[in-house]
Design a protein that fits this description.
Layout lengths: L9 H34 L4 H22 L4 H6 L2 H22 L8 H34 L9 H24 L10 H10 L1 H6 L4 H16 L13
C-alpha cells in the first residue's frame, strides 16, 4: 500500500513564513527602539533637534522596509475603520493633553516662527514617529503573526491576540525609554502608563492612523504647555 505524497502549496508556505518573520521583525524593532536613543542621545549626547531627525530617519527606514518585505497592503490598512481611528486618536490626544497639563507646570516658550517650527518638528513629526514605533509597528506585527489563523475568527481569540499586542507595545515603550538615562528609574512608569492610552486607537481599529494622532497630541501639548519639560519630549540633556 502506498501513501499519497505530501503536496506543499507555495502560497501557503509563503504565508506561513511571513507570519513567522513577524517575530524576527519585532526582535529587530526592539534593537532599534533601544539602540537609537542609547547611541545618539545617551552616549553621543547629540543636540535634541538633530537627534530627532536621525531618530525619524531610522524609524522611517525600518518600518518602511518591514511593510515592503511583509507585503502589506498599506492603502487598505489606512482605509480600514479610518473614521473610528481618527475619532479615537483625537479623543486619546485629548486625554493625553489633560495628562500633560496635570503633570507639569507651564513654562515659557519661544514665539513666532521658532515656536511654529517646534510644534511641527518636536510636536507633530516626533510625535507621529513615536506613535508608529511604539504602537503601530508592534501591534500590527503581532496581528500579522496570527494572520489567517483560526484564533482571529473568534472574538475571544481576537481579545487574546489584542492583549498580546498591547503587551508587546508596552515592551517597546519601556525598551525605547530605557535608551534615555533619565528614564532608568521611577520615571519609567509614566510613559508605560501613557502607552495604554495612545495604543488604544490602533489596537481597536488596526488602522495606523489613530495612535500617531494621539501621540502627536501629547507632544504638541508638551511643546505648548511645558517647553522645558522634564518628563515629555526626551532627551532632556545631562
Amino acid at each position: 500500500m502506498t501513501t499519497a505524497p505530501t503536496v506543499h502549496h507555495p502560497q501557503a508556505t509563503h504565508v506561513a513564513r511571513r507570519r513567522v518573520s513577524q517575530w524576527s521583525w519585532l526582535g529587530w524593532g526592539l534593537v532599534v527602539a533601544f539602540g537609537v536613543p542609547f547611541l545618539f542621545a545617551d552616549l553621543l549626547e547629540l543636540p535634541r533637534d538633530l537627534y530627532y531627525g536621525l531618530y525619524m530617519l531610522f524609524v522611517a527606514v525600518f518600518v518602511g522596509t518591514w511593510a515592503r518585505v511583509s507585503e502589506l497592503n498599506v492603502r487598505a490598512m489606512f482605509r480600514r475603520n479610518w473614521q473610528w481611528a481618527v475619532v479615537l486618536g483625537t479623543g486619546c490626544a485629548g486625554v493625553l493633553t489633560f495628562i500633560v497639563l496635570r503633570t507639569e507646570d507651564a513654562t515659557t516658550h519661544p514665539r513666532g516662527l521658532e515656536l511654529a517650527a517646534a510644534v511641527v518638528w518636536r510636536g507633530v513629526l516626533y510625535g507621529v514617529t513615536d506613535g508608529v514605533l511604539l504602537s503601530v509597528f508592534p501591534i500590527l506585527a503581532v496581528f500579522g503573526a496570527f494572520a489567517g489563523r483560526r484564533i482571529l475568527r473568534r472574538f475571544r481569540g481576537k481579545l487574546a491576540v489584542g492583549a498580546l499586542a498591547l503587551a508587546v507595545s508596552l515592551a517597546f515603550t519601556a525598551t525605547y525609554h530605557l535608551g534615555y538615562p533619565e528614564f532608568r528609574g521611577e520615571l519609567m512608569r509614566k510613559p508605560v502608563t501613557g502607552d495604554v492610552v495612545w495604543s488604544v486607537p490602533t489596537l481597536v481599529t488596526l488602522n495606523p492612523l489613530g495612535s500617531p494622532i494621539a501621540h502627536a497630541g501629547l507632544h504638541v501639548s508638551a511643546v505648548l504647555h511645558s517647553y522645558d519639560t522634564e518628563t515629555f519630549l526626551p532627551p532632556h540633556g545631562p
